[in-house]
Amino acid sequence: MSEASAEVVVVGAGPAGSALACLLARRHDVLLLDAARFPRETVCGESVSPEGQRLVERIGAEERVRALAPHPVHGMRLVAPDGTWFEGRYRSERPGFAVRRLALDAALVAAARDAGARVIEGARVHDLVFAGGRVAGVKVDVDGAPREIRARLVAGADGRRSLVARRLGLRRERARPRRFAVRGHWEGAEGLSELGEMHVATGAYCGIAPLSRTLANVAFVTGPRAMREAAGDLEGFYRRSLKRRWPAIAERLQHARLLAAPRAIGPLAVSCRAVAADGALLVGDAAGFYDPFTGEGVTLALRGAELAAEAILAALARGGSGPLPRLSDYERSREQATRDKFRFNHRLQLAVTWPAAANAIARRLRRRPDLADRLVGIAGDFVPARAALGAGFLLDLLTA
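Above: the chain's sequence. Below: its structure in token form.
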């Protein structure tokens, strides 16, 4: 197709957009657009679950990702407010891994190019093209030059603040929970291993992703009242918060170096009233983002791309030349794939919001490593989340 058209235009080249381009471009003409130029920074916990490893292989990016020498992650340690901790191990064929998004996203964009996608960086999409009530393309500025690009399908993979979702009137910001994340990278951090860490405090939590034996992503999530203190001095707020709320972590960072000024994002949680329309669909964070306490954001993005690709390939195989109809099968499959995990996430966060509950759960799971492994397996996306929603698991937890 010409530069002014494509079968599929993917807006956003983060993990979801690049993965979708990888899966489609070997058989169809795909144009991948992103306003940024890679490599580029983004705020993320930077830990990928074992299921994410499978998905990296599925999209054909394993060699690109392996070349980054990601740090293996074999499980999680959770530390309750009173200091009680437990560890759960991933009982899976593949480990999880942690790697800088700066490098991972660039590798996935390169994999999309390898697959045959046309990639344009520095391309800022500012509107959709409509024809006959359907999405028929995008309006984009490339290095300041306006273009109109026609497509049979526009896939919005443009993140939590998705322009595609907003132009379709699908985006909704959740009133609750209303949380913000602040992230920094530390070289020389002590006590890192091949376990991710989650440290719970009253109304907040702090995650540590080991990017190497000495380099750590240290990110905490907190509420709007606490974030007011950050006005005008985010780094000071970040350092003070670690010392005040997570002194054990601050002690491990005492001789470490903060590599760059911390960055913040929020509010975190957004939702969409639908994830598809005639001629368009949403994937990744653009389709909805729930505060990822269990650290599955990248995996969810890759899984969403896999589901979207299956629906798009089936629709394109049916032939025709106009915009694709609403892909209801994608909406159904995504709902089935995420419903239980989101419910699990919500219930787990409610439990750890109360210090007494978090302390009690940590004590029980410390006594029952089999339950701890099961819980971490659900977080790692290779044990079905519905396993934690039934009465059996709850009874085991309460009587451990």
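The chain has a mean pLDDT of 89.
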